[in-house]
Amino acid sequence: MIPRGRAASLKRQLAVATAVVLAVLGVLLAGGASLLFERIQGRVMEARIDADAERVLAAVRRGPEAPYLDQARLDAAYSRPLSGQYFVIRFGDTQWRSRSLWDSELPTVAATGTFVHAPGPGDQQLLLRTREFRRFGQSFAITVASDYGPLVREFRRGLYTFTILWAVALAATLVALNVWLGRALRPLAVARRQVAEIQSGTRQNLDDDAPLELAPLIRQINALLSETRHALSRSRHAMANLGHALKTPLAVLYNLIERDDIRRNAELHGALLAQLEQLSQRIGRELGQSQGGAASGVGEPFVASRDLPAVIDALRRAHRRDLAVELVLDEDATLPVERVDLLEVLGNLLDNAWKWAASRIQVSVAGQGAQWFIQVDDDGPGIADPAQRQQALLRGYRLDESVAGQGLGLAIAADIVAAYRGDLALDHSALGGLSVRISLPRQGGLAKSDFAS
Amino acid sequence: MRLLLVEDSVALADELLLRLRAEGYACDWLVDGRDALRAPFDESYDIAVLDLGLPGVNGLDILREWRTAELALPVLVLTARNGWSERIEGLEAGADDYLGKPFHPDELVLRLRALIRRSHGSEAAPLLRVNGLALDEARQCVRAEDGEVPLTGGEFALLRYFMLHPGRVLSRWQLAEHLYDLESERNSNVIEVHVSHLRDKLGKDIIATRRGQGYVFCGLSE
Questions:
Q1: Cβ–Cβ contacts within 10 Å for residue A151, how many?
Q2: Does residue B222 lie within any of the structural domains?
Q3: pLDDT of residue A3 exceeding 50
Q4: Are A251 and B92 in contact (CB < 8 Å)?
Q5: CATH number of the domain encompassing residue B57
Q6: Rounded to a whole number, what is the distance in Å from the CA of B44 to chain A's nearest CA?
Q7: Cα–Cα 20 to 30 A to A330, which of A354, A445, B50, B202?
């Protein structure tokens, strides 16, 4: 399994890409809006100031002696102190100021006709312009100023709201993306669980009702599985056929050397018999190994509650010895080992136990953590010497020569267990005899999925 | 003891027949599975040795068919396929014993002896003891307190059959059927001669004659 930290995560990549795109888009939008606002606001303000200047000019009336300012014609804002609307009218030596200016001054403007930004009373930001008008034969310089601060503040508030909404939308998008992606990847998690089931032997193929994008992969994997199965079964058959084909000639040879003319020559008979034993033990051992798929996980699994009683029944019939056999099984114990292989293991172990047991045998199958534990105990003589126990597992060593059989049972069982990366150990049994303890990894198993978070 | 051997390897069958006949079995040998299907219904066999890889009909199918027809014949399956899954399949099909190839001929003889004893309800002791008589099947002689009484092959085969059916009336025809294979000439006089020899060697009362019916094994009933 790849450590999650370093592994490229589709989800994270998509989340980062989405966040970047949305953030850039947000900044561009906000920037564009600001630019637009500034331009529009500038124009509007300029137009307003021009209009104001003309209205102020219209309030300048011809008086009997001199021009006067008709207050009634002026906007009320010019009378409210610091209202943000100001004017100054200069003609000759006279200067009229709007009452709103109170005791502050408008900045004196050098050039006429240009718009000028200037700080006003308080924190006001003023746009002002001075224009020359001729009226009643005189020249009036009218400066009109207007505070554009409120507009800017209004826009800033709008921008602020926009930014917050945008951030919320971005977060919501990321959450939604995460959820959608999790949902979209769920078929992968399902497929992964099914592969684990195939490995543990509880399933043969992946379900092919996967989403459109995944279906070809699933089909490909199924094809691969079936090909592997075929190849395995072919090579297994070839191996078995060879072994079995050799057995009948071997049986003939065993019979031939018992003929009187060979028996009479004890030395020759002994040498021939020794070679024949070697041949048949080797074949027996190799066939024992080639029986199953050795952890390929493509065959029929071992179902303890179905298969163990069959082995015991076979032994009961073969030995015709009345032994008390106690089975202690986990409910629904299905082991990720090919049935043929575990039958071979348990058949050999139980056969051995049957030969030696005084009256009882105990078999237990239990799953614990990541392991399956199988234990076969008998109340026979056992093997007292630990060194001899080791010997019993060695290839071709005949410990039980006195009892019919090839004496390979324990060794064949150990071979098969080793092929599944398991462990077989011999020990002293609580029943008094030999205890064979096997641990098998629950490889594959139904491990937790990495896709769904 | 009449034995049916179904084996398609000629070389192996030759050797087995040699050994089994020396052990006092009247053997018939078949190669083809189709012949084997009918054989035990046509002849009275006491035991069958059945190979599984046969031409014609598979050995397991033969066995299943025999058992379906409620044939009680003890069957020893002799096969190269002796993995445990195959063994279980064989026993489930109705085999009484299962011997994997290659095997030592002594092993086969021992298994056959045990199987015949079991099918007649005797225990698996080294000597066959019935009514005070002890038969050593390995050495084909009778063990007496004062030593051994040697037997010829014919006498041994006859005595063994008697001892496996103690107290039962066995006709000459019946005896001939179980003691001679299809190839031998069945001459009931031979049986008469063997019975007379057995009486000479072991005592007059060991086998009683039931006129018109046959013989009954009585043993040494003191």
A1: 16
A2: no
A3: no
A4: no
A5: 3.40.50.2300
A6: 24
A7: A354
Taking an 8 Å cut-off on Cβ atoms, the answer to whether B101 and A310 are in contact is no
**Do B183 and B81 fall within a single domain?**
no
Task: Report the residue from A244, A276, A311 with minimal CB separation from B84.
Answer: A311
- Total of domains in chain B: 2
How many angstroms separate the CA atoms of A435 and A352, rounded?
11
Q: How many CB pairs under 8 A join A and B?
A: 87
B134 and B115 in a common domain: no
What one-character-per-residue DSSP string does B16-68 give? HHHHHHHTT-EEEEE--HHHHHHHHHHS--SEEEEESS-SSS-HHHHHHHHHH
Q: What is the DSSP string of A305-329?
A: HHHHHHHHHHHHHHH----EEEEEE
Residues of A in contact with B97 (CB under 8 A): 318
State the CB neighbour count (10 A cutoff) for residue B21.
Answer: 15
User: Which of A252, A280, A404 is nearest residue B15 as measured by Cβ atoms?
Assistant: A252
* Residues 129-168 (B) with a CB less than 8 A from some CB of A: none
Q: How far is A250 from chain B (nearest CA, A)?
A: 6
Chain A residues with CB within 8 Å of chain B CB:
243-245, 247-256, 258-259, 276, 280, 287-288, 291, 310-311, 313-314, 317-318, 320, 339-340, 343-344, 346-348, 404
Give the helix/strand (H/E) hosting B113: helix B105-119
Do B22 and B109 lie in one domain? The reply is: yes
Look up the domain containing B181 and give its range. 128-217
Q: Which residue has the tokens 């009187």?
A: A260
The residue among B99, B119, B139 that closes a domain is B119
Q: In whole angstroms, what is the distance from residue B63 CA to residue B55 CA?
A: 14
Tracing tokens 């966040």 back to the chain, one arrives at A19
d(CA A131, CA A91): 12
The SS3 of residue A139 is strand
State the best of B19, B84, B86, B122 to mutate against chain A, taking most chain A CBs within 10 Å: B84
Copy the structure tokens of residue A442.
């629950």
Looking at domain A297-453, its CATH class is alpha beta
pTM comes to: 0.62
Question: Is the CB of residue A126 less than 8 Å from the CB of residue A73?
Answer: no
Q: What DSSP string describes A107-137?
A: PP-SSSS-EEEEE-STT-EEEEEEEEEEETT
Q: For tokens 């060194």, what's the residue? A: A387
The reply to whether B33 and B59 lie within a common domain is yes
pLDDT more than 70, % of chain A: 89
Q: Could you tell me if B141 and B95 lie in one domain? A: no
Q: What does the pLDDT average to over A48-68?
A: 87
Check CB contact under 8 Å for B12 and A255.
Answer: yes
Q: Return the closest-CA partner of residue B99 out of B109, B123, A254, A252.
A: B109
In Å, how far is A178's CA from the nearest CA of chain B? 51
Asked if residue A449 has pLDDT above 50, the reply is: no
Per the model's pLDDT, the better-predicted residue between A95 and B41 turns out to be: B41
Tell me if B72 is assigned to some domain: yes
Q: How far is CA B76 from CA B48, B63, B65, B110, B119, in A?
A: 6, 10, 15, 12, 12
Asked if the model's pLDDT at residue B221 lies above 80, the reply is no
| The predicted structure's pLDDT at residue B161 | 93
Q: Is the ipTM of this complex over 0.90?
A: no
Alpha-helix runs per DSSP H in A323-408: 339-356, 386-392
